[in-house]
Amino acid sequence: MFVETLFTAPEYFLWWILIAVFSVCLHELFHALAAYYEGDDTAKRLGYFTLNPLVHMGTQSLVILLLTGMCWGACPVNPSRFRHRYGEALVAFAGPFANLLLMFLFALAGIAVAFCGSLNLIPETPANNLERFLSMASRANAAFFLLNMLPVPPLDGHGIAVSLFPSLRPFYARLGQAGFALIILLFWLPVGFSRFFWQLSAQMSLACYALLIQALR
């Protein structure tokens, strides 16, 4: 279980907790900001304009994170108040977009640290550790982006799908809470999806690094 890494790999345990909490909270904050832009102040009135993990994740999610490495967040919105036709899709995509943005920002920071390290502006050991942390954060946010774009409830891809294709609503209504079970099955059954997912996340992060390096030359 993930909690065992606290004793076998404490550095990894701490890094993952920090990355997951910050990334999930920013993800949910972007949902709140997008909803406010669309005319719904529900999240603002309920105090979701914050990065406080107790607000966006809650105690249960934080405890599960410490035990298993998995977590979730939530942001209350009222789609009936959105002012644009595709407001629901915009608000749903805002969360994954935050993770996409973080993937690039962490990668850019990693490149900057590597450059400073090559000039001996940062001691070698701290530079290497910081590079590893930033690389892990970039890969994690690539994974968060890909995961949340899956068109399965309660993930954001579901909100995007039903907004762009309203005819899918009856199908998702029948699917109901089974969507969460489907996600668990995808990652836990020995069908290779989990391995493919993490490899795709790593490749996405590497492509981000390559793109940024090319742009900075």
How would you describe this structure to a colleague?
The chain is mainly α and 217 residues long. It contains 11 helices and no strands. The longest helix is centred in the middle third of the chain and has 32 residues, at 87-118. 34% of the residues are buried. The model has no long low-confidence stretch (mean pLDDT 94).
SSE blueprint and pairings:
Blueprint: H1 5-8, H2 10-37, H3 42-45, H4 53-56, H5 58-68, H6 87-118, H7 124-148, H8 156-164, H9 169-175, H10 178-188, H11 193-216
Helix pairs in contact: 2-6, 2-7, 6-7, 6-8, 6-11, 7-11
Question: Which features characterize this protein?
Answer:
mainly alpha
Q: In angstroms, what is the radius of gyration?
A: 19 Å
Number of distinct beta strands? 0
The biggest beta sheet reads:
none
Query: Average pLDDT across residues?
Result: 94
The helix content, as a percent range, equals over 70%
Would you tell me the structural class of the helices and strands?
Answer: mainly alpha
Q: Give the distance, in angstroms, between the N- and C-terminal Cα atoms.
A: 43 Å
